[in-house]
Amino acid sequence: IHMTKLKRLTKEYSHKILKTIFQNEKTLLISLMFVGLIFVFLFLRKIVLPIVFIPIGVFSMYLYGSTRSMIAFELVTLFAVVTGIAYGGFVGALVGGISCAIGMIVFTHADWSYPLWVTAVAIAGYSSSFFSPDQVIFAGVLLAFLVDAFFYALYLLLAHNPVKLTIWITSHTFLNYIAFLLLAKPLLTIMKA
Fold first, then answer.
1. Torsion angle of alpha carbons 74, 49, 113, 152, nearest 10°?
2. pTM of the model
3. Is the pLDDT of residue 72 over 90?
4. How many C-beta atoms surround the C-beta of residue 127 within 10 A?
5. How far apart, in whole angstroms, are the C-alpha atoms of residue 57 and residue 52?
């Protein structure tokens, strides 16, 4: 009895939905666009998602770059790592390197450390490909910390303020942990769907 009722309801409502879609040009156009977006997402997401991640990563650097705050938050590392795990090290390196390069030029300072930052984030994106999707949070926090620790040591050697550096590395590591904890697995689920 249950299956018969379900089949009847499916037939009745699918007929109503199709009738509504084909009722006028506007709903037909919207429906076709929706189907097109689903097609793009399902079949071209390996191209579309990394391209979408780059500008989001760039703009995530805005707050830090515009305020020169000691609190460091960005999504570049997250996008580089999840892309590297989902689509391979080369794509992860591209997403990380391009996002970091553009973000530093547009929103922060492109000083002598600029090529080092771009290279380090690209290496983190590439290195993430050696981790499994189940290890994404660990991989992200570890790689972000290694990049930060390298620059922390470098800046200390160059006599930067150790208190400011400690606040910067602590906030960046903690905020990356939160970003990976909240976003990494859902992003990978979408990327691998």
1. 40
2. 0.79
3. no
4. 20
5. 9
